[in-house]
Amino acid sequence: MKRRKGLTFQNWIKKFLEDRGYLVHNQRAGGRLVRNKKGSFYVNLNKDIFGVFDLIAIKKNKKIRWIQATCDSSLKRKIEKIKKIPLSRRFNSLEIWQKKKWGVRVILIDRKPKEIMKIMKGRIIYVNSFSV
Q1: pLDDT tens, 27-80?
Q2: Would you say 94 and 66 are in contact if contact means Cβ atoms under 8 Å apart?
Q3: Contact yes or no for 6/90 (Cβ under 8 A)
Q4: Global pTM?
């Protein structure tokens, strides 16, 4: 159930950005069924980009958006992982999109993580003068 919820959220982000003119690549997780003498089991294959990101979004004259989509409430470990990625912040925007009960929270990962946008009931609220 948790995986399905995450994939639904990733697909929502993809559509949200495409509706705003972005070309989006959605890297989906996968797996396979393995059979042996004792029976069969499912093996999860992590296919995140650089082991961290779920989506990449590009738009003319905008930074490339590297997006980690999550439904988790704790972001500390994710932020530390993203900070280690050696991408120039001049041309790239490293973001976490967090699904909350009230909507979506978007956090930009730079030297200090900062909230840049909230999406509540389809309404976008910008924080820190950021635009999609």
Answers
A1: 876 666 777 777 776 665 557 888 899 999 999 999 999 999 999 988 999 999
A2: yes
A3: no
A4: 0.82
Other CB atoms within a 10 A radius of the CB of residue 5 amount to: 11
Q: Percent of the chain having pLDDT more than 70? A: 83
- Return d(Cα 97, Cα 10) in angstroms, integer: 9
- The number of residues making up the chain comes to 132
Distance of CA 67 to the CA centre of its chain: 3
Q: If one looks up domain 2-126 in CATH, what number appears? A: 3.40.1350
Other C-beta atoms within 10 Å of 94: how many? 23
Between 121 and 57, residue with greater pLDDT: 57
Task: Decide: 68 and 79 in contact? Cβ < 8 Å.
Answer: no
